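Order emerges. As here.
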Amino acid sequence: MAEIHSSRTKNTMHNAVISGITQMFIIVTRFVIQTIFMYKLGKAYTGVNGVFNNVILVLNIAELGLSSALAYSMYKALVEKDVLKISGLMNFYRKTYHKIGGVIAGLGLLLIPFLPLLIKGHQVVPHITLIYLLFLLNTVSSYFFSFKRNLLTADQKEYLNQLNILLYTTIQMVLQIFVLLVFKAYIAYLVIFILFQWLSNFAISHKVDQLYPFLKENKQAKVEAKELLAIKRNTKELVGGKISEVAEIGTDNLLLSSIMGVQVAGTYSSYELIRNAILKLFQMVIFGATASVGNFVHSVKDQNQVEKVLYRHFRISFILALFSFTCLLNLLRPFILIWDKSYLVRPLAIWLISFDVGLKILRNTLITFFLALGTYQHMGIKSIIESLLNLIFSAFLLSLTNLGIAAVVLGTILANILVNSWWEPYQIYRLYFKKSCVKYLTYYGRYLFLMLVTETLSYLCLTKITTKNLIMDFLLSGVVSIAFAFAASFLFVRQDMQFILKNLWKKLGG
């Protein structure tokens, strides 16, 4: 058992480190590209780019959470090394994803007449329909290859996905920077993106075929009726989750664009880039453990052991949330002032964006265990309620107040707190642990309070020692934020911080 646990820890750290390095590199290069994009093409193109990304996210609702439902089935098959079952699941996956790609293509084409309603002030950007069709082509084509990535993730080989992404994204971004600097060509910029996304998906598909040759040998394998029923039941529950994801992430820019105009949406897109980059980085680190958790819960029957792992996972999520919230709140303003002060928003919006990131990272533990344990019952109705509240709050605040960007972020936070903060732990404890979740809620409240206290102290400290030099202010804010986050981590969760540093040091060859 110790050997198996060591293997899981090794796989988790391996995936986390590779994912972290890849995402950090992509974050830096995307900031470079976004900066060039802003200066060469302006806010209008930035807004269109953000709005169409969100339109595509809305269209991706057709996926209906199928990947999560199949991942849960895949964990058990991989633990048992059931080749026929794995092949059957992947065959079902392939056929279903091809159909979904067709559905998205059809829905996407139907949206073309409504594009002027989604983008207020779209006239400043020529060839708007062609640009939209390129976005649509990219997402549709991904459904014919990218589904194979999920097998690597379920089999604790996410690092292969990340190395593939790192290689093709590097070449893609170099070429995109070239066409922006030399030609200011947005359409060429999109074509390069589509080409390298396709090459990346094709290469990973070929890699999966090499690693799992039995997939080609069992092309006729099918999912058993009992298993198919379970997948359909879980997918049905996850439909609401997909709707909620779209409402939470995909509608903010659409609301801003349709109510306040493409220029405001362009400003918000820059903050979305920063927020989503931080979330992506830490989510890749946290979700790198999902397959290991799935493997663990299907290998042991002791619920006390599973609960201990859940609490350790939460404390690690707390450390990441602590660093992200503290650093974002203290660094966003000086960073934007250095980057382009015309994109600066009011302090309330910065606080809300930073707090939203912290809440989402804290929530990742429950999402990880939902996926690993398959506790999807009633998730659909919960997510639909959450998405409706999110949309209502955001639209109401945006229309009836002058909060602007802060309104849509506040709407998301309110929906998250009113629904997810209590429902998700209640569901996991009710369905799996068969006991009250009061202990977990108390635990969550304590660490959320500690996160707010740490950030407040660091903010008050910085108000006393700021300089008049923007770069010095940025560097000073970074040092103080990291120092406070480190100190709080060692004070509140010393063993977990030492665990992270020890395994990270080993992984980096120390």
